[in-house]
Amino acid sequence: MTVVRAKKHLGQHFLTDKNTAKRIVNALRPEKGFDKVLEVGPGMGILSDFLLEDKRFESWLIDLDIESVEFLKTKYPSLDKRLIHGDFLLLDFASVFPGPLAIIGNFPYNISSQILFKVLEHRHQVIELVGMFQKEVAERCAAKPGGKDYGILSVFLQAYYDIAYLFTVKAGAFNPPPKVLSGVIRLERNSIDRLACNENLFQKIVKAGFNQRRKTLRNALSVIADKARMPNHPFLDLRAERLSVDDFIELTNEIEKSLK
Ligand SMILES: C[S@@+](CC[C@H](N)C(=O)[O-])C[C@H]1O[C@@H](n2cnc3c(N)ncnc32)[C@H](O)[C@@H]1O
Fold first, then answer.
1. ipTM, 2 decimals?
2. Ligand 1 mean position to 40 CA, how many Å?
3. Gap between the terminal Cα atoms of the chain
4. Which residue of 16, 165, 228, 249 has the fewest C-beta atoms within 10 A of its own C-beta?
5. What domains can you pick out in the chain, each with its CATH number?
6. Where is the Ribosomal RNA adenine methylase transferase N-terminal domain (predicted)?
7. Counting Cβ atoms within 10 Å, is residue 3 exposed (0-12), middle (13-18) or buried (19+)?
């Protein structure tokens, strides 16, 4: 079988280390309630080999690269409609996967944030994600309050998912090797009721707070409402990076009350 030529614009760095591939697939926890797994960007199938062996769930693959898809068609002739040629970012989830599912991938790093925002958009279906990102992005997802990595992506993701940083992968595990280290993380959907607040206002507050992250929240949030209408709450004297997700929820509820 000829191999797929690595294309830079598709973020193609093929993992060659089978042990790493196995560790990524083994990090899935179907006992959490999914029976379908969608692999984003299977490339030449190093993760798919392990996924398709696992009979606890049904695996689906989507790749944007026609050369990869042709390669995988020959490699896994029985996959049929479970091998999709298409753009994950444009995938109409509801029509292909009506129920709960997990997402896995050694993701193309050039579209990491878009992948994560797509997952957030479909958070009611995506109950788990296991995958590899550029190490910095993986660290940002899992970051705790107080550090420079903690930002909008961390708060939005952690509002809906419990996140664990699993392990780091060196550039030498890929062909061609990327210029950066990689990190594998797992996102698990947390309790649906956690976000007991006005989600729209929550998102506005988080965005405004981090957009001017060196200012106290009282100053940064003046784009949302006049300072005089803000509650007298101690969180407003802090910078956004000091607040946990639960603190942001509490603040959202306080601000909503005082704006009524
Ligand atoms: C980093 S490579 C990983 C390939 C393979 N999983 C591996 O571990 O060797 C990323 C893969 O994502 C695919 N890809 C890039 N953009 C995509 C998109 N928007 N939707 C689906 N797949 C995409 C690329 O074609 C490539 O196969």
1. 0.99
2. 6
3. 66
4. 228
5. 14-189 (3.40.50.150), 199-259 (1.10.8.100)
6. 20-191
7. exposed
219 is in an annotated binding site: no
20 lines ligand 1 (CB under 6 A): no
Atom of ligand 1 nearest to the CA of 88: 20
Q: Per the annotation, does 41 bind a ligand?
A: yes
Instruction: Determine whether the annotation assigns residue 13 to a binding site.
Output: yes
Pair type for strands 83-85 and 58-63? parallel
Ligand 1 nearest-atom number relative to CA 108: 10
Cis bond upstream, residue 177 (ω within 30): no
Question: In terms of DSSP bridges, do strands 182-189 and 126-134 run parallel, antiparallel, or are they unpaired?
Answer: antiparallel
Closest residue CA from atom 16 of ligand 1: 10
Q: In sequence order, what DSSP letters do the residues of 71-136 get, joined into one string?
A: HHHHH-TT-GGGEEES-GGG--HHHH--S-EEEEEE--GGGHHHHHHHHHHTTTTEEEEEEEEEHH
pLDDT at 192: 61
Per-residue pLDDT tens over the stretch 215-230? 999 999 999 988 889 9
SS3 190: coil
Tokens for 83, please give them.
Answer: 């091998």
